[in-house]
Amino acid sequence: MSESAPVNNRTESKAGKRVTSFNEGTGRLAAILLSPTLIVLALVVLYPIVSALRESLYTSGQRLDANGFIVKGSTFVGLDNYSAIFHGDTADRFWTAFYNTTFFTVVCVVLETVLGVAMALIMHKAFRGRSVVRAAILVPWAIPTVVSALLWKWIFQADGIANTLLGSQILWSTDGWQAKLSIIVADTWKTAPFIGLLVLAGLQTIPAEVYEAAKVDGASVLQTFRRITLPLVKPALLVAVLFRILDTLRIFDLPFVLVGPHKPSVETLSMLGYDEAFNTRYGPAAAYATVLFVYVAAVAYVFVKLLGADVIGEARAKKPGGGGRAQRKRDAALPAPAVGVTSVGGGM
């Protein structure tokens, strides 16, 4: 009778325990190494969010108590600050700011995506002076936003370059469509190179043999772009667009410096929250900030789910042979090799 099967089972059990123990030890080590970063993130991200959420439930300032005396401090008002945003006297101002924020996001991101892809295609071509062209394209993105806003403010002055070239006297910094247009132009000029840079990184990962094969097959330039270039740079492009959407939804400094505050045609949600905080109405300001946070989070979630932007490398982990947790599970499920299995007793 052969005893090889029980020995083999015991060996596999011991090997499985060793793999499990190794994975648990690796997980504990990873948690220890990541704990400083997680603590810092909790302090600089989680705590402000919780603090803003708590502040949005209070109102601060002077009030009269039951005896008619003036009392300073915060008063718990529950969801009154949120109710005032959507239905109070400031509801019209909020919805105008909400529309402006969404409008700037859609228009600017679309223009930046088109121009950014074009910039990436230009920077990817091999020609004399390519390094100079790359540097010139990336310069606007390297300029701080406030400095860029001041530059465009001088350009859009009544006696500035824009009116000189157009031969008109447009008051760009006044409330109206011209203020919207000035912000769109300045923001597109400033951040289109960012998308171009990320798309360029994606273009450089495409093998040249793919284009050579397409050329041999007689594919036109447009067909090559649609069938090869665009699908292969899609992951990098989606991540770039997502970053720009999230950044534009929080736009504040460019319209604030370029056009100025209290302009209904360009006032955004960030500017609205700033104005409330500047006037020491911290409860409503925190409520505006919370609403903006929820709006940004919802847009990011929908974007990732609908378009499949692989921001954290989740797709790679799901592929056969991918790393991460999936790979560890596969390693643990593999049978251990039979070591030292011998036939005991009356074998075959």
From TrEMBL:
Chief localization: membrane
GO biological process: transmembrane transport
The name this protein goes by in its record: Sugar ABC transporter permease
Transmembrane feature ranges: 29-50, 103-123, 135-155, 191-211, 232-252, 285-308
Species annotation: Kribbella qitaiheensis
GO cellular component, as recorded: plasma membrane
UniProt cross-references to SUPFAM superfamilies, sorted A to Z: MetI-like (SSF161098)
Residue span, ABC transmembrane type-1 domain: 98-303
